[in-house]
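Q: My labmate handed me this sequence with no annotations at all. I'd like to see what the chain might look like in three dimensions before we decide whether it's worth expressing. Could you predict it?
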Amino acid sequence: MNGTLLLRIAVAIILLTHSVFGMFNNGINDFGNLFLNQIGFAPFGVFLAWSIKLSHVVAAVLLILNKFIKLAGFVTIFVLIMGIITVHFKEGWFVVGGGRNGMEYNFLLIVVLLAIMFPNGWNKNTIK
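A: Here is what I predict for the chain of 128 residues:
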């Protein structure tokens, strides 16, 4: 059993719940139309929103299967960093408590993904 199994399952659950509900309550289309299109991604906002959420679903499946972990991690980290830049940074650090909608959650997910991607740490052979 891989030492990252619990982290992979936890991140997969987070990615799935963050994505799947929006597929059934119009949340993804709203994110594309009401946010992404409004901040300059028009007319591609809905396409981008669906691409982001589908990438989360694919990454979750790959994490559970323990396949293509680095690819899934890099794509998801890119999405999370873009989320920080476009949404969370201006709100500050805290998701709740000392603020609202901040970047702390994305930061934690990025660090956990890096730990999953590089379970033996960082060295000259890490990127292989």
